[in-house]
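Structural prep section.
Before we set up the soaks we want a predicted structure of the protein with coenzyme A in place, mainly to decide which crystallisation condition to try first. Input record follows.
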Amino acid sequence: MPTSTLGKNIDLIRVGQAEYDDFCALLEWRRTGVENGDTARYMAEETQNFFTAYSVLDSDTFFIFAAKVDGRFVGYATAVIIPKPDPRRGILYVDELWVAEPYRLGGIATLLMRETLTLARKLDLWRVRLYVGMDNLAGRNYYRKMGFAEKGDAVWCEYELPEGQ
Ligand SMILES: CC(C)(COP(=O)(O)OP(=O)(O)OC[C@H]1O[C@@H](n2cnc3c(N)ncnc32)[C@H](O)[C@@H]1OP(=O)(O)O)[C@@H](O)C(=O)NCCC(=O)NCCS
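Run finished without errors. Recording the tokens verbatim:
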């Protein structure tokens, strides 16, 4: 449903196959910092096969919410259900949240997160969880404003898989 923030028409959309061609332009904008870049890499056969195999664009457990301003994608959030094998059922993990710079501080991330929190409530999950860098003061401020509590100190650990294995 269209919502108005700072006088703009904002549409919130769950991105599926039909929207992906337009949506991947936003991902490329984030990746390169340049608008209207070449999106051929998103259409590569291996990538599309992965999307099909894991229902990335048509899933009961993975969600892409995106905001359009005047018909153009300008921000998005991704979230995935991580089940718990006990009565807590599971958490909704927010993996990515990004709003293009010219559209920041206009309430777009707030709309995206409200949609995400509504989903978690609807699914009757235990909690919504995410990580944010200690030095990302805008992000931390934003999450606090959205009602998230910072729980202790943690270190983010990743194991990098060699490419092409
Ligand atoms: C963090 C981010 C998603 C916020 O998006 P946004 O659309 O500008 O956020 P909103 O307009 O909904 O802001 C809501 C609140 O967040 C806080 N906030 C947002 N940007 C802020 C900033 N630069 N400095 C301080 N507080 C900020 C404010 O409390 C704001 O409320 P207010 O406008 O009443 O003061 C955006 O800055 C972004 O994409 N950053 C880069 C990616 C990132 O850091 N993602 C989150 C961590 S994974």
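Observations: The helical segments are 17-32, 45-53, 108-122, 137-145.
Flagged for discussion at group meeting.
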